[in-house]
Amino acid sequence: MQEPQKPAWPARFAANWLRAWSVYTEPRVLVILVLGFSAGVPLALTHSTLNLWLREAGVDIGTIGLFALVGIPYVLKFIWAPAVDALPFPLLTRLFGRRRGWLLGCQLLLVLAITAMGLVDPAAAPLVMAFAALAVTFVSATQDIVIDAFRIESLDETQYAAGMANYVAAYRIALLASGAGTVEIVSALQGAGVSQDWVWSAGYGAMALLIAACMTAVLLAREPEGNAEVQARQAHMSPKERFEDAVIRPFTEFAQKPDWFSLLLFVLLFKLGDALAGTLMGPFALDIGFEKETYTRIANGVGFPMVLAGGFLGGAMMKFLPMTRSLWIAGILQLLSNLAFVVLALAGDDVLVLAGAVAVEQVTGGLGTVVFVAFLSHLCQARDVTATQFALLTALAATGRTVFSAGAGYMVALSGWAVFFSLTALAALPGLLFLAWLQRRGAIESASKAAESGDLKVESGP
User: Fold this and answer.
1) Taking the CB of residue 409, how many other CB atoms lie within 10 A of it?
2) What is the pTM of this model?
3) What is the CATH number of domain 23-236?
4) Strand, coil or helix: what is 93?
5) Same fold for the domain at 23-236 and the one at 241-452?
6) Over the stretch 109-137, which tens digit does the pLDDT of each residue have?
């Protein structure tokens, strides 16, 4: 009896890719899509959109510059992340669960804070506006903490990258909605003759309604498994035990991982070259002869769809490849993408070369971000301290990029643009060297196997 023939390789290839892309429509991954939108809306409302409102209201440019400080909670959110792990949100945690309670609480507070912010007259009360914006960023940063923990705990290992790709895509769309969308609402109302006292209130009110709509996804979602057990254990802890469990244990648990210090150095360095290259992109375009309008249109018109494509491509790729190989591909592509700007520096103000360089950089950057965040998620496998560990790891990655990028302008002044971008490609090598070391030691495979087991640890305590 003849064995049935296997489908031809094109059919198998198509079937595999369809299976890979189908992960984006799985219910738990779609919830992360909506949460990404909820996370993205507040950012523009407290930054670019707010700056436009302040300037239109006649606030002086020096004061507008000081409003950048309202973004500090996004940098310092790891400080209160232990509270999200250890404490219940009043009433809502009891009704909806440990993570969903916090999510709904943050979204409800965001609706109120954004609405209140829209009711402030920035010209008459700039200090009140600053505190209102600070309230929005604090709650938004807290929401980010909870979303990261919910994403890690509710998705399995095969969904991490796809979940992050969905998150990034929705986050970018939310930035457009709360940026350009708010401005369009305000402009339309102004054109219709609505009083200037209310147009910005209406724009911010519309964004608050979008956050409220996102609460539907949280209500429909399921609480991640195991959190009821964590809540029961925490309920019997003394204040001292809660403190030790929330603040100290995230460090001691991570330090039990094989080669934990090398893992931290890898987190610090993996996206360094990519971050250095992107630090001075605007000044670079102007220096080589582009008009700011031309650069902005290409950066947004080409960059926006390309970063989304890169994110989705990274998520699909990780359905086929193990974590270590995915990190190698992402790291090498990020290194090579920096060389595209060497070509642009030598070519000068060539629009096609600029579009090509932006496309390459955004695709590889989006892919690299999704793979890297999926890797960080693999490292956070203690359910009761997920929020704290992930907040600390992302803070470490951001700190490395910020500190090392601070001297980028001086590097350009000394070397010129072509040499600078060549050096940013070389700056990607330390991360790849640590990747090789970790691969040889089996540390990444160990973290991946812990995630693949689907058994996030819940037994803990001092």
Assistant:
1) 13
2) 0.78
3) 1.20.1250.20
4) helix
5) yes
6) 999 999 999 999 998 899 999 999 999 99
